[in-house]
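Quick entry, no commentary yet.
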Amino acid sequence: MKRVLITGATSGIGRGLAEQYAKDHIVYACGRNEQALGELAKIDNVTPLQIDVTNLAEIQSQCAHIAALDILILNAGNCEYIDDAKHFDSALFKRVVEVNLLSLGYCLEVLLPKVKNGGQLVIVSSSAAFLALPRAQAYGASKAGATYLAQSLAVDLDDIDVSVVHPGFVKTPLTDKNDFPMPMAVSVEQATKAIMQGIAKRRKEIHFPKRFTFILKLLQLLPFSLWLLLSKGIKR
């Protein structure tokens, strides 16, 4: 059985992936929520690991016993919005960037050497990385960094396949906090299926739902000055 490690496995996409992969893989499910980890422990083939991905020492100690991985999925994430850009909230910015971007570096330092030659690294970014969006200075910047990191690793890693995931809106406990419409939102089950299919095909980029992400990719081709006008209209 292949071995998969998933961060952010206690809710949303991460939990969906853990539950599905456990059907025929050995799964290391990482997260901070002790109750959710206890529930995952009841599933055959799942080993729960209580880890704060922003703590390098904790990752090192909790994962020291893991000898080798076939698939490493770095999925842990946080989303907060900056409501007043003029009065910039640096503490909020730090919180989001630590979880969404800096934690990737900590996880890679400890876990990437454990990925077998011919294995896979999957970094979950966001379609928010495609365009500058209102209130997304922290979230969007962190996810744009995650995308660049994944693509740069794909250039340098010869023996490991790297995939970056760009989901649209997914109905999770995290997005339940959003106070704006989420067009073409998909369920966790749909997101899990799309990601697993992309990983199985070793796609360099996994993005969904296609109707939504293709629209964003087309908008990304616009001159920034034109997108700026459009985005200000959206903001209003």
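second:
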Amino acid sequence: MSGTGESGSHVRQLRHEADALKKEAERATDPEERQRLLDRARKLLAQSEQESAMAAGDIYPQE
């Protein structure tokens, strides 16, 4: 598998995990837990966007 394919797979996995966390947050009864789950989902989505852009050659990782 090429590096781009691996990146795409990892990006999809991150997005899937973020979706699962959002759904879990919807079911959470504790407001603090709900916020923690939503924050984690946002971080995963941001990471997936960054990795997707890097794989496309749009941005380069910070050094």
